[in-house]
Amino acid sequence: MTVKNITVLGSGIMGHGIAQVSATAGYNVVLRDIEQQFLDKAMEKIRWSLDKLVTKEKISKQESDAIFARITTKVDLAEAVKSAELVIEAVPEIMDLKKKVYAELDKVAGKDIIFASNTSTLPITEIANTTTRPDKFVGIHFFNPPQLMKLVEVIPGQKTKQDVVDLTVNYVRSVKKEPVICKKDVPGFIVNRLFIPMVHEACWLRQRGNYKLEEIDSAVKFTMGFPMGIFELADFTGMDVIHKATIELELRDKKVIFPHKDIEALYNEKKLGQKSGEGFYKYSDDKYERIQLDETLAKKCNPISLAANILNNAAWLVTNKASDIAEIEKAAQLGLGLKKPIFDTAKEFGIKNIVNELNSLASKHGSFYEPDPLLISMQ
Ligand SMILES: NC(=O)c1ccc[n+]([C@@H]2O[C@H](COP(=O)([O-])OP(=O)(O)OC[C@H]3O[C@@H](n4cnc5c(N)ncnc54)[C@H](O)[C@@H]3O)[C@@H](O)[C@H]2O)c1
After folding, report:
1. In the predicted model, is pLDDT for residue 215 greater than 60?
2. Are strands 137-142 and 151-156 parallel, antiparallel or unpaired?
3. Rounded distance, CA 67 to CA 115, Å?
4. Per-chain mean pLDDT for the chain
Protein backbone atom coordinates (compact mmCIF):
# COMPACT_ATOMS: atom_id res chain seq x y z
CA MET A 1 0.00 0.00 0.00
CA THR A 2 1.24 3.50 -0.71
CA VAL A 3 0.15 6.37 1.46
CA LYS A 4 -0.93 9.61 -0.15
CA ASN A 5 -3.82 10.66 2.06
CA ILE A 6 -3.58 11.06 5.80
CA THR A 7 -6.26 11.93 8.31
CA VAL A 8 -5.18 13.38 11.64
CA LEU A 9 -7.68 13.07 14.48
CA GLY A 10 -7.34 15.88 17.00
CA SER A 11 -6.03 19.30 16.01
CA GLY A 12 -4.39 20.26 19.33
CA ILE A 13 -0.71 20.70 20.18
CA MET A 14 0.37 17.49 18.46
CA GLY A 15 -2.31 17.05 15.80
CA HIS A 16 -1.80 20.38 14.06
CA GLY A 17 1.98 19.84 14.03
CA ILE A 18 1.65 16.33 12.59
CA ALA A 19 -0.73 17.69 9.93
CA GLN A 20 1.78 20.39 9.04
CA VAL A 21 4.80 18.09 8.71
CA SER A 22 2.74 15.61 6.66
CA ALA A 23 1.50 18.30 4.26
CA THR A 24 5.04 19.65 3.99
CA ALA A 25 6.15 16.20 2.82
CA GLY A 26 3.48 16.30 0.09
CA TYR A 27 0.66 14.27 1.68
CA ASN A 28 -2.95 15.36 1.35
CA VAL A 29 -4.10 15.86 4.91
CA VAL A 30 -7.53 16.00 6.48
CA LEU A 31 -7.49 17.41 9.99
CA ARG A 32 -10.44 16.35 12.13
CA ASP A 33 -11.69 17.71 15.44
CA ILE A 34 -15.01 17.77 17.26
CA GLU A 35 -15.70 21.46 16.65
CA GLN A 36 -14.92 23.69 13.68
CA GLN A 37 -13.58 26.41 15.99
CA PHE A 38 -10.76 24.08 17.15
CA LEU A 39 -9.89 23.38 13.54
CA ASP A 40 -9.88 27.08 12.68
CA LYS A 41 -7.48 27.74 15.54
CA ALA A 42 -5.24 24.88 14.42
CA MET A 43 -5.15 26.23 10.85
CA GLU A 44 -4.22 29.67 12.19
CA LYS A 45 -1.29 28.09 14.06
CA ILE A 46 -0.18 26.22 10.94
CA ARG A 47 -0.37 29.42 8.90
CA TRP A 48 1.69 31.25 11.54
CA SER A 49 4.32 28.49 11.58
CA LEU A 50 4.56 28.40 7.77
CA ASP A 51 4.81 32.19 7.60
CA LYS A 52 7.72 32.02 10.02
CA LEU A 53 9.49 29.54 7.75
CA VAL A 54 8.94 31.91 4.82
CA THR A 55 10.37 34.83 6.83
CA LYS A 56 13.42 32.73 7.66
CA GLU A 57 13.69 31.85 3.95
CA LYS A 58 13.43 28.13 4.72
CA ILE A 59 10.57 27.80 2.21
CA SER A 60 9.12 30.13 -0.44
CA LYS A 61 5.73 31.83 -0.13
CA GLN A 62 4.53 29.66 -2.99
CA GLU A 63 5.60 26.48 -1.16
CA SER A 64 3.96 27.68 2.02
CA ASP A 65 0.67 28.27 0.19
CA ALA A 66 0.86 24.85 -1.46
CA ILE A 67 1.48 23.14 1.91
CA PHE A 68 -1.40 25.02 3.51
CA ALA A 69 -3.70 24.14 0.60
CA ARG A 70 -2.97 20.43 1.09
CA ILE A 71 -4.66 20.52 4.51
CA THR A 72 -8.44 20.48 4.72
CA THR A 73 -10.54 20.40 7.86
CA LYS A 74 -13.56 18.24 8.71
CA VAL A 75 -15.78 17.70 11.71
CA ASP A 76 -17.69 14.74 10.24
CA LEU A 77 -15.62 11.63 10.98
CA ALA A 78 -16.84 9.48 8.05
CA GLU A 79 -16.13 12.32 5.64
CA ALA A 80 -12.73 12.90 7.23
CA VAL A 81 -11.48 9.34 6.68
CA LYS A 82 -13.16 8.69 3.32
CA SER A 83 -9.94 8.91 1.26
CA ALA A 84 -7.35 8.09 3.92
CA GLU A 85 -4.84 5.27 3.81
CA LEU A 86 -3.42 6.22 7.22
CA VAL A 87 -5.19 7.75 10.22
CA ILE A 88 -2.99 9.31 12.90
CA GLU A 89 -4.84 9.84 16.16
CA ALA A 90 -3.82 12.64 18.51
CA VAL A 91 -6.83 13.06 20.81
CA PRO A 92 -6.36 13.64 24.57
CA GLU A 93 -4.47 11.01 26.59
CA ILE A 94 -7.54 9.43 28.22
CA MET A 95 -7.99 5.71 27.67
CA ASP A 96 -11.79 5.76 27.65
CA LEU A 97 -11.83 8.63 25.18
CA LYS A 98 -9.31 6.90 22.89
CA LYS A 99 -11.40 3.71 22.96
CA LYS A 100 -14.55 5.66 22.14
CA VAL A 101 -12.82 7.45 19.25
CA TYR A 102 -11.53 4.13 17.84
CA ALA A 103 -14.96 2.49 18.16
CA GLU A 104 -16.47 5.28 16.05
CA LEU A 105 -13.55 5.29 13.66
CA ASP A 106 -13.54 1.51 13.17
CA LYS A 107 -17.15 1.64 12.02
CA VAL A 108 -16.65 4.28 9.33
CA ALA A 109 -13.08 3.65 8.13
CA GLY A 110 -12.43 1.32 5.17
CA LYS A 111 -11.05 -2.04 6.34
CA ASP A 112 -7.55 -1.47 4.92
CA ILE A 113 -6.97 1.87 6.60
CA ILE A 114 -4.09 1.81 9.07
CA PHE A 115 -4.60 3.31 12.51
CA ALA A 116 -1.63 4.96 14.22
CA SER A 117 -1.90 6.35 17.74
CA ASN A 118 0.28 9.18 18.99
CA THR A 119 -0.24 8.13 22.62
CA SER A 120 2.76 8.80 24.89
CA THR A 121 1.94 6.37 27.66
CA LEU A 122 -1.09 4.18 26.94
CA PRO A 123 -0.66 0.53 25.89
CA ILE A 124 -0.89 0.17 22.11
CA THR A 125 -2.06 -3.47 22.26
CA GLU A 126 -4.93 -2.65 24.61
CA ILE A 127 -6.24 0.11 22.34
CA ALA A 128 -5.61 -1.99 19.21
CA ASN A 129 -7.60 -4.91 20.60
CA THR A 130 -10.72 -2.75 20.89
CA THR A 131 -10.74 -2.43 17.07
CA THR A 132 -11.44 -5.03 14.40
CA ARG A 133 -7.93 -4.49 12.97
CA PRO A 134 -5.26 -4.90 15.66
CA ASP A 135 -2.94 -6.14 12.88
CA LYS A 136 -3.23 -2.73 11.21
CA PHE A 137 -2.74 -0.73 14.41
CA VAL A 138 0.56 0.83 15.43
CA GLY A 139 1.97 3.40 17.87
CA ILE A 140 3.55 6.49 16.31
CA HIS A 141 4.95 8.69 19.04
CA PHE A 142 5.90 12.15 17.81
CA PHE A 143 7.56 14.54 20.26
CA ASN A 144 6.49 18.09 21.01
CA PRO A 145 6.67 20.17 18.86
CA PRO A 146 6.38 17.81 15.88
CA GLN A 147 7.56 20.58 13.53
CA LEU A 148 10.96 20.66 15.28
CA MET A 149 11.56 17.38 17.08
CA LYS A 150 13.37 14.83 14.91
CA LEU A 151 12.47 11.69 16.81
CA VAL A 152 9.41 9.50 16.29
CA GLU A 153 9.04 6.24 18.22
CA VAL A 154 7.24 3.52 16.29
CA ILE A 155 5.63 0.91 18.52
CA PRO A 156 4.10 -2.28 17.17
CA GLY A 157 1.36 -3.83 19.28
CA GLN A 158 1.30 -7.59 19.85
CA LYS A 159 -0.62 -8.24 16.62
CA THR A 160 0.74 -5.49 14.36
CA LYS A 161 1.84 -6.90 10.99
CA GLN A 162 5.42 -6.26 9.89
CA ASP A 163 4.32 -4.53 6.68
CA VAL A 164 2.36 -2.02 8.79
CA VAL A 165 5.49 -1.31 10.86
CA ASP A 166 7.52 -0.93 7.62
CA LEU A 167 4.94 1.42 6.13
CA THR A 168 4.93 3.51 9.32
CA VAL A 169 8.73 3.71 9.37
CA ASN A 170 8.71 4.80 5.71
CA TYR A 171 6.11 7.45 6.46
CA VAL A 172 8.21 8.75 9.38
CA ARG A 173 11.28 8.98 7.13
CA SER A 174 9.23 10.68 4.41
CA VAL A 175 8.32 13.50 6.81
CA LYS A 176 12.06 13.89 7.50
CA LYS A 177 11.99 12.41 10.98
CA GLU A 178 14.16 9.71 12.52
CA PRO A 179 12.22 6.58 13.47
CA VAL A 180 13.24 4.47 16.43
CA ILE A 181 11.33 1.23 16.80
CA CYS A 182 10.36 0.22 20.29
CA LYS A 183 10.05 -3.49 19.50
CA LYS A 184 7.75 -4.22 22.42
CA ASP A 185 4.77 -2.30 23.69
CA VAL A 186 6.40 -1.59 27.05
CA PRO A 187 5.30 1.15 29.49
CA GLY A 188 6.91 4.48 28.56
CA PHE A 189 8.26 3.06 25.29
CA ILE A 190 11.92 4.20 25.18
CA VAL A 191 12.23 7.93 25.92
CA ASN A 192 9.62 8.25 28.65
CA ARG A 193 10.96 5.10 30.28
CA LEU A 194 14.30 6.86 30.59
CA PHE A 195 13.04 10.33 31.41
CA ILE A 196 10.01 10.12 33.74
CA PRO A 197 11.58 7.77 36.36
CA MET A 198 14.68 9.98 36.44
CA VAL A 199 12.61 13.01 37.46
CA HIS A 200 11.41 11.04 40.49
CA GLU A 201 14.91 9.79 41.24
CA ALA A 202 16.12 13.39 41.20
CA CYS A 203 13.46 14.19 43.83
CA TRP A 204 14.75 11.29 45.94
CA LEU A 205 18.33 12.50 45.54
CA ARG A 206 17.30 16.00 46.59
CA GLN A 207 15.53 14.67 49.67
CA ARG A 208 18.19 12.15 50.69
CA GLY A 209 21.21 14.40 49.97
CA ASN A 210 19.59 17.69 50.95
CA TYR A 211 20.77 19.26 47.70
CA LYS A 212 19.60 22.48 46.09
CA LEU A 213 17.71 22.14 42.81
CA GLU A 214 20.46 24.01 40.97
CA GLU A 215 23.17 21.70 42.32
CA ILE A 216 21.44 18.60 41.00
CA ASP A 217 20.51 20.32 37.75
CA SER A 218 24.07 21.52 37.18
CA ALA A 219 25.38 17.99 37.73
CA VAL A 220 22.79 16.59 35.32
CA LYS A 221 23.74 19.15 32.71
CA PHE A 222 27.52 19.18 33.07
CA THR A 223 28.31 15.67 34.34
CA MET A 224 25.63 13.70 32.49
CA GLY A 225 25.48 15.73 29.25
CA PHE A 226 21.82 16.70 29.44
CA PRO A 227 20.83 19.84 27.50
CA MET A 228 19.43 21.29 30.74
CA GLY A 229 18.84 20.19 34.32
CA ILE A 230 16.35 17.43 35.06
CA PHE A 231 14.11 19.71 37.17
CA GLU A 232 14.33 22.32 34.44
CA LEU A 233 13.35 19.71 31.87
CA ALA A 234 10.46 18.61 34.09
CA ASP A 235 9.23 22.21 34.33
CA PHE A 236 9.57 22.55 30.58
CA THR A 237 7.61 19.33 29.97
CA GLY A 238 4.87 20.16 32.47
CA MET A 239 3.96 18.48 35.78
CA ASP A 240 0.55 17.48 34.31
CA VAL A 241 2.29 15.44 31.61
CA ILE A 242 4.77 13.94 34.10
CA HIS A 243 2.11 13.15 36.69
CA LYS A 244 -0.12 11.46 34.09
CA ALA A 245 2.81 9.48 32.69
CA THR A 246 3.81 8.45 36.23
CA ILE A 247 0.36 7.02 36.89
CA GLU A 248 0.38 5.04 33.64
CA LEU A 249 3.91 3.72 34.17
CA GLU A 250 3.30 2.70 37.74
CA LEU A 251 -0.01 1.09 36.88
CA ARG A 252 1.63 -1.20 34.36
CA ASP A 253 5.04 -1.91 35.90
CA LYS A 254 6.20 -1.31 39.46
CA LYS A 255 9.82 -1.90 38.45
CA VAL A 256 9.99 1.07 36.08
CA ILE A 257 9.36 3.91 38.50
CA PHE A 258 9.73 4.73 42.19
CA PRO A 259 7.32 7.65 42.51
CA HIS A 260 8.21 10.57 44.76
CA LYS A 261 5.33 12.53 46.30
CA ASP A 262 6.70 15.91 45.13
CA ILE A 263 5.42 15.42 41.58
CA GLU A 264 1.86 14.76 42.66
CA ALA A 265 2.07 17.62 45.18
CA LEU A 266 3.21 20.11 42.52
CA TYR A 267 0.51 18.84 40.17
CA ASN A 268 -2.16 19.24 42.88
CA GLU A 269 -0.94 22.74 43.66
CA LYS A 270 -1.20 23.54 39.92
CA LYS A 271 2.52 24.26 39.84
CA LEU A 272 2.84 22.77 36.40
CA GLY A 273 6.18 24.32 35.43
CA GLN A 274 6.99 26.96 32.80
CA LYS A 275 3.41 27.13 31.55
CA SER A 276 1.92 28.01 34.94
CA GLY A 277 4.77 30.28 36.10
CA GLU A 278 5.97 27.85 38.76
CA GLY A 279 7.02 24.24 39.02
CA PHE A 280 10.23 23.20 40.74
CA TYR A 281 11.42 26.73 39.89
CA LYS A 282 9.58 30.06 39.70
CA TYR A 283 9.37 31.89 36.37
CA SER A 284 8.77 35.59 36.08
CA ASP A 285 6.87 35.49 32.79
CA ASP A 286 5.72 32.87 30.32
CA LYS A 287 8.65 33.37 28.00
CA TYR A 288 11.09 30.48 28.06
CA GLU A 289 13.52 31.27 30.83
CA ARG A 290 16.77 29.39 31.56
CA ILE A 291 17.91 28.58 35.09
CA GLN A 292 21.48 29.61 35.95
CA LEU A 293 23.50 26.43 36.13
CA ASP A 294 27.27 26.11 36.18
CA GLU A 295 30.20 23.74 36.58
CA THR A 296 31.06 24.91 40.10
CA LEU A 297 27.56 24.02 41.29
CA ALA A 298 27.84 20.74 39.37
CA LYS A 299 30.82 19.72 41.52
CA LYS A 300 28.70 19.94 44.67
CA CYS A 301 26.57 16.96 43.69
CA ASN A 302 27.49 13.46 42.60
CA PRO A 303 24.64 12.32 40.34
CA ILE A 304 25.62 8.63 40.31
CA SER A 305 22.16 7.58 41.53
CA LEU A 306 20.63 9.42 38.55
CA ALA A 307 23.08 7.88 36.10
CA ALA A 308 22.30 4.51 37.70
CA ASN A 309 18.56 5.09 37.32
CA ILE A 310 18.60 5.98 33.62
CA LEU A 311 21.13 3.25 32.90
CA ASN A 312 19.11 0.60 34.73
CA ASN A 313 16.03 1.48 32.67
CA ALA A 314 18.08 1.48 29.45
CA ALA A 315 19.46 -1.94 30.39
CA TRP A 316 15.93 -3.18 31.14
CA LEU A 317 14.88 -2.26 27.58
CA VAL A 318 17.77 -4.29 26.16
CA THR A 319 17.28 -7.28 28.48
CA ASN A 320 13.58 -7.35 27.65
CA LYS A 321 14.27 -7.12 23.91
CA ALA A 322 12.38 -3.87 23.44
CA SER A 323 15.43 -2.13 22.01
CA ASP A 324 19.20 -2.22 21.72
CA ILE A 325 21.93 0.10 22.95
CA ALA A 326 22.43 1.93 19.62
CA GLU A 327 18.69 2.63 19.22
CA ILE A 328 18.36 3.73 22.86
CA GLU A 329 21.24 6.16 22.44
CA LYS A 330 19.66 7.54 19.26
CA ALA A 331 16.31 7.98 21.05
CA ALA A 332 17.99 9.66 24.04
CA GLN A 333 19.97 11.99 21.81
CA LEU A 334 17.03 13.03 19.63
CA GLY A 335 14.22 12.80 22.19
CA LEU A 336 15.98 14.15 25.29
CA GLY A 337 18.73 16.12 23.59
CA LEU A 338 21.53 14.24 25.38
CA LYS A 339 24.95 15.41 24.27
CA LYS A 340 26.68 12.34 25.63
CA PRO A 341 25.57 8.70 25.25
CA ILE A 342 24.10 7.18 28.43
CA PHE A 343 26.51 4.24 28.33
CA ASP A 344 29.49 6.63 27.95
CA THR A 345 28.41 8.48 31.11
CA ALA A 346 28.09 5.10 32.79
CA LYS A 347 31.63 4.19 31.80
CA GLU A 348 32.90 7.49 33.25
CA PHE A 349 31.32 6.55 36.56
CA GLY A 350 32.43 2.94 36.08
CA ILE A 351 29.78 0.27 35.53
CA LYS A 352 31.02 -1.53 38.63
CA ASN A 353 30.43 1.62 40.71
CA ILE A 354 26.95 2.00 39.21
CA VAL A 355 26.09 -1.60 40.08
CA ASN A 356 27.43 -1.05 43.61
CA GLU A 357 25.33 2.11 43.90
CA LEU A 358 22.20 0.24 42.79
CA ASN A 359 22.89 -2.61 45.22
CA SER A 360 23.42 -0.14 48.03
CA LEU A 361 20.17 1.72 47.18
CA ALA A 362 18.33 -1.63 46.97
CA SER A 363 19.53 -2.61 50.44
CA LYS A 364 18.28 0.70 51.85
CA HIS A 365 15.16 1.39 49.78
CA GLY A 366 13.98 -1.89 48.28
CA SER A 367 14.05 -4.11 45.23
CA PHE A 368 13.13 -1.33 42.81
CA TYR A 369 16.83 -0.48 42.70
CA GLU A 370 18.17 -3.95 41.95
CA PRO A 371 20.55 -3.79 38.99
CA ASP A 372 19.48 -5.25 35.67
CA PRO A 373 21.31 -8.48 34.72
CA LEU A 374 22.83 -6.71 31.71
CA LEU A 375 24.63 -4.24 33.98
CA ILE A 376 25.86 -7.03 36.22
CA SER A 377 27.25 -8.82 33.14
CA MET A 378 28.95 -5.61 31.92
CA GLN A 379 30.98 -4.96 35.09
N1 LIG B 1 1.60 17.52 24.22
C2 LIG B 1 2.70 16.77 24.23
O3 LIG B 1 3.76 17.18 24.66
C4 LIG B 1 2.63 15.39 23.62
C5 LIG B 1 3.82 14.80 23.17
C6 LIG B 1 3.77 13.54 22.58
C7 LIG B 1 2.55 12.87 22.48
N8 LIG B 1 1.41 13.46 22.97
C9 LIG B 1 0.16 12.71 22.84
O10 LIG B 1 -0.58 13.24 21.75
C11 LIG B 1 -1.98 13.12 22.03
C12 LIG B 1 -2.64 14.47 21.90
O13 LIG B 1 -2.04 15.34 22.84
P14 LIG B 1 -2.11 16.93 22.67
O15 LIG B 1 -1.13 17.47 23.64
O16 LIG B 1 -2.02 17.30 21.24
O17 LIG B 1 -3.60 17.20 23.19
P18 LIG B 1 -4.50 18.51 23.00
O19 LIG B 1 -5.42 18.53 24.14
O20 LIG B 1 -3.65 19.70 22.70
O21 LIG B 1 -5.32 18.19 21.67
C22 LIG B 1 -6.28 17.17 21.57
C23 LIG B 1 -7.29 17.58 20.52
O24 LIG B 1 -8.15 16.46 20.30
C25 LIG B 1 -9.46 16.97 20.14
N26 LIG B 1 -10.44 15.90 20.32
C27 LIG B 1 -11.06 15.49 21.44
N28 LIG B 1 -11.89 14.47 21.14
C29 LIG B 1 -11.78 14.24 19.82
C30 LIG B 1 -12.39 13.35 18.91
N31 LIG B 1 -13.30 12.48 19.33
N32 LIG B 1 -12.03 13.40 17.61
C33 LIG B 1 -11.10 14.29 17.17
N34 LIG B 1 -10.50 15.18 18.00
C35 LIG B 1 -10.84 15.16 19.30
C36 LIG B 1 -9.56 18.10 21.13
O37 LIG B 1 -10.64 18.97 20.81
C38 LIG B 1 -8.18 18.75 20.95
O39 LIG B 1 -8.20 19.72 19.92
C40 LIG B 1 -2.09 12.47 23.40
O41 LIG B 1 -2.23 11.09 23.25
C42 LIG B 1 -0.75 12.81 24.03
O43 LIG B 1 -0.35 11.89 25.02
C44 LIG B 1 1.43 14.70 23.52
Report:
1. yes
2. antiparallel
3. 23
4. 96
SS3 at position 6: strand
What ranges make up the beta strands (E) of 145-249? 151-156, 178-181
Grouping H, G, I as helix, E, B as strand and the rest as coil, residue 143 is: coil
CATH entry 1.10.10.10 includes domain 191-378: no
pTM higher than 0.85: yes
Q: Which residues line ligand 1 (CB under 6 A)?
A: 9-15, 32-34, 38, 90-93, 101, 118-120, 142-144, 241
Which of 21, 30, 33 to probe ligand 1 with, by most ligand atoms within 8 A of CB? 33
Q: Is residue 89 predicted with pLDDT exceeding 70?
A: yes
Q: Right CATH number for 5-181 from 3.40.50.720, 3.40.50.2300, 3.40.50.880, 3.40.50.300?
A: 3.40.50.720
pLDDT at position 242 is 97
Domain-wise residue ranges, the chain: 5-181, 191-378
Quick one: pLDDT at residue 1? 80
Nearest residue (CA) to ligand 1, atom 2? 144
